[in-house]
Amino acid sequence: xxxxxxxxxxxxxxxxxxxxxxxxxxxxxxxxxxxxxxxxxxxxxxxxxxxxxxxxxxxxxxxxxxxxxxxxxxxxxxxxxxxxxxxxxxxxxxxxxxxxxxxxxxxxxxxxxxxxxxxxxxxxxxxxxxxxxxxxxxxxxxxxxxxxxxxxxxxxxxxxxxxxxxxxxxxxxxxxxxxxxxxxxxxxxxxxxxxxxxxxxxxxxxxxxxxxxxxxxxxxxxxxxxxxxxxxxxxxxxxxxxxxxxxxxxxxxxxxxxxxxxxxxxxxxxxxxxxxxxxxxxxxxxxxxxxxxxxxxxxxxxxxxxxxxxxxxxxxxxxxxxxxxxxxxxxxxxxxxxxxxxxxxxxxxxxxxxxxxxxxxxxxxxxxxxxxxxxxxxxxxxxxxxxxxxxxxxxxxxxxxxxxxxxxxxxxxxxxxxxxxxxxxxxxxxxxxxxx
Amino acid sequence: xxxxxxxxxxxxxxxxxxxxxxxxxxxxxxxxxxxxxxxxxxxxxxxxxxxxxxxxxxxxxxxxxxxxxxxxxxxxxxxxxxxxxxxxxxxxxxxxxxxxxxxxxxxxxxxxxxxxxxxxxxxxxxxxxxxxxxxxxxxxxxxxxxxxxxxxxxxxxxxxxxxxxxxxxxxxxxxxxxxxxxxxxxxxxxxxxxxxxxxxxxxxxxxxxxxxxxxxxxxxxxxxxxxxxxxxxxxxxxxxxxxxxxxxxxxxxxxxxxxxxxxxxxxxxxxxxxxxxxxxxxxxxxxxxxxxxxxxxxxxxxxxxxxxxxxxxxxxxxxxxxxxxxxxxxxxxxxxxxxxxxxxxxxxxxxxxxxxxxxxxxxxxxxxxxxxxxxxxxxxxxxxxxxxxxxxxxxxxxxxxxxxxxxxxxxxxxxxxxxxxxxxxxxxxxxxxxxx
Lengths: 436, 436
Hints:
The structure is a homodimer.
Chain A: H1 3-20, H2 34-37, H3 50-61, H4 83-95, H5 106-123, E1 130-134, H6 137-152, E2 156-160, H7 165-173, E3 177-181, E4 199-205, H8 217-227, E5 230-234, E6 259-263, H9 264-267, E7 275-279, H10 282-289, H11 318-353, E8 357-359, E9 367-372, H12 376-389, E10 395-399, E11 402-408, H13 416-435
């Protein structure tokens, strides 16, 4: 085998995949265990050609893939691994640069800081923040809360009942104490009784996972400042919207945050994984995480990004973010976000206008929460039918105790026709349920 | 731009890189800040072609890259991103499958469990272990210690003074209490006074980072069993050696571990990141990490791998490990490990035979610890000169308080000529230091 020939075959598979993904069922139509059962019980004794791997990817694995790249993937948060991002991952794997410390990977270390500065500029964040990349927001939030724990000597972490599950998971990991506060009728953290005097940190969310609601960050920042608590802003999904000035209303107060996380792998066209964490208190992160054994000491007078987070080994993740920002530019990123806002608004309008359907939450970004009139069970059955069709994929959430459907626009290849088709499938399956 | 054309250009760059990496200086010959200074202060307003990214990778970034793929990279642990692994990363990025839960990525979830089972077979680990992939051993060890903390209700973690820094980092993260125990003359954990009665966990290392020493796992397992402490085995580097039956002496006692980590991205030809964690107590990991919010609930009666570790979002990492195992097979993996053992033994023999040089530790695997007779300062100066030559890259460690050089063989393209050249450079620079 040669790298060029195998590579050309892999590249052709990838190109064909991106061309045809829209014709595949969005949600994998397999039962648990079905894929595993098709794999040999034991590894091969001798090597096989790479083409055999590609063949089995096509024949064995493909039916078990839920297609996040599908233009009618409306689940969780819609995401895109754009072409420049994909090819940059090929290059990162080729270089296999491991940024355990600066001298082990100077270009990776410096590009990471630089591109995070670029992205801060694009998003209109304050100048001078320290930025680095973690794998996911789970890790970014863990890093921020660890810094808060060490800096304050306190253990209580405050967040709303709409905060992402990764916050509670990080709190448990860190041996900290969760304190959940209620949200208001529009799913925003209530601040009327917010008490942070004993808190290490408060986590405000811009774009909650259920309904993309925006916590009142300015009021939360006031309370955090009074109490000396760390303010961490989880903008994992919605922070990308700040690339558009008209959506920066949702950034109010974020300039006062001690740390903020935005996942470039969500709404910024970058393949998994690329979670961007900025802080105005880098010394506190460094104090929490720095730990340099002898075999990593060098004479370089320089910070190592591994001193700002849990992991020592770090991939060359900045390469893909750099490629995406350069190949799209500010205008290209804005165009994608604006088109997704337009599509979500369209869908919202169709739901509003259709008898028998209702909207269930305000829609600040590209996620629409809605339901069909009727019971939770009927809505759940509807969702299962839509997803079983393979024509579109949505998930549900619960808002005010009710089962709610949730359409998340976020794939760069999604067109108006795709959103229309999802709406058609929803109405078709609802009608067929009614007559069944 | 089209994906096929840009992709062909990226692939050609990658192929050329792999062909010429041996001619580049191993350690980046740049000063801190030098790469950043060459990058534009602001991101572009409009998109650029991907070819511009490739051009700047070549012109701007390449001088700042320390080449982990270089056949004379002998630093840290030598690693290889093999061709099948690289191409599988291209495919993983193309699919952008995010395994937050089974139904979001059935093939990724099932292939991950399956390939970890394959690898357990290849390494001769006990049947029936639960395996999953984390990014790095930092995270794998954190996951294991978290499970230990929750299962035992205790907080003390015991490890030797030769344990990897990630253990102390994980202990701090988890709010646990470190207890370092001394090692013996051959850098193995001393067990004569090992007391684990109040310990949540003990971390034994097979292949320590400084000298690749092997802790006496059977005795440690005895003590852990008596005390009801969790036994975690860190075999991040050396676990790969178990693919060769003649090296399984170092696996004694590991069959009694509660968890064991082996990094496929170290000595198993897989690009960063791919840390394999097995446990015989999956319920304890799940109990520590499971936390399912409403928007992730589904009717599937199935485990989600995100319930076994800190992160929710998970890349399709198993694809590259699958590709590597299939394209090399058991025999191919064995051949690489055996060749590296042979090369390290050769180098060890040269040092032993050469007046004025000494070996500083036993050599159980492919890392040779040695020094030139003389002061620490002289050895440090020697190391700096060797690394500044760009001809080979090594790091140092401290053993018994002395500055020791460390040659780690682990790159699949390293030949006998490369090891010989490193030895020549070392002697040349030592001689030139002496006459200076």
